[in-house]
Amino acid sequence: MDVHKIDIGNSKTEKIKVPSFTNSDINYDHVYYLINKYQNNLIRQGTHANKSRSEVRGGGAKPFKQKGTGRARRGTSRSPIIKGGGVIFAKTNRDYTISLNKKLFPELYKKLFSLKLSDTSVITNVKSLIKLKDFKNNIDINAKSLVIYDLSDYDLLKSIQNIKSFNFADVNFIPVIEYFNSSKIIFTEASYNIFCERYLKWELILSH
């Protein structure tokens, strides 16, 4: 399998040979944990909250006397079973993030990356990229694409951030669902080097 290497400055394209995997190599239980348990939980705010009977304002006075009314005895007007009272089993702020074994990430990303190899490109020489038209000459800007960048690619992002069909992801957090929903995957040279070194664990790192 090949990854397309595109030199933006010189409008040159070449191919990088990479190893491939079959679908049978993928543990889909691990993929489920990565997407649903780890990534989706990581972006949840967890700011939902209700007030329990102890948190609702007021209710300090006894609503009516203990005996003689024929009603059930009550010591507060903030009981959850009456209007204006607290919530039974009230929601509280919480952190939904979970931890996954760090050895799991390289294995998962290596196999998931291989499934999109034919749609993956690496752009180099982005320092010379000044105008959007230079980018249009080498990349199809009408295809739904995920651009994976590093913080050092600030100049590139300023040039292409208004392209409607492009979504952007930091190499430190690549959303797997968006990764597979995109027609094209575009790495910058810096982000590709980081991705290979951190997750793929093979000798694909581009020379500067």
Kindly describe this structure.
This protein has 6 helices and 6 strands; from the N terminus they run ββααβαβαβαβα. The chain is α/β, with parallel strands linked by helices. It has 2 domains: 2-44 and 100-200, Ribosomal Protein L4, Chain: A, CATH 3.40.1370.10; 46-95, no CATH class. It has a 6-stranded mixed sheet with strand order 2-1-3-6-4-5. A hairpin with a 4-residue loop joins β1 and β2. It is elongated and about 95 Å long. The mean pLDDT is 81.
Which descriptors apply to this entry?
208 residues; alpha/beta; Ribosomal Protein L4, Chain: A; 2 domains; 6 helices; 15% strand
Count structural domains: 2
**Under the CATH scheme, which class of the largest domain?**
Alpha Beta
Q: Report the span from N to C terminus.
A: 23 Å
- What is the name of the CATH architecture of the largest domain? 3-Layer(aba) Sandwich
Element-by-element helix/strand order: EEHHEHEHEHEH
SS-based structural class? Answer: alpha/beta
Unreliably modeled segments: none
Report the sheet-strand fraction. Answer: 15-25%
Average pLDDT score: 81
Major sheet attributes: 6 strands, mixed
Give me the CATH superfamily of the largest domain: Ribosomal protein L4/L1
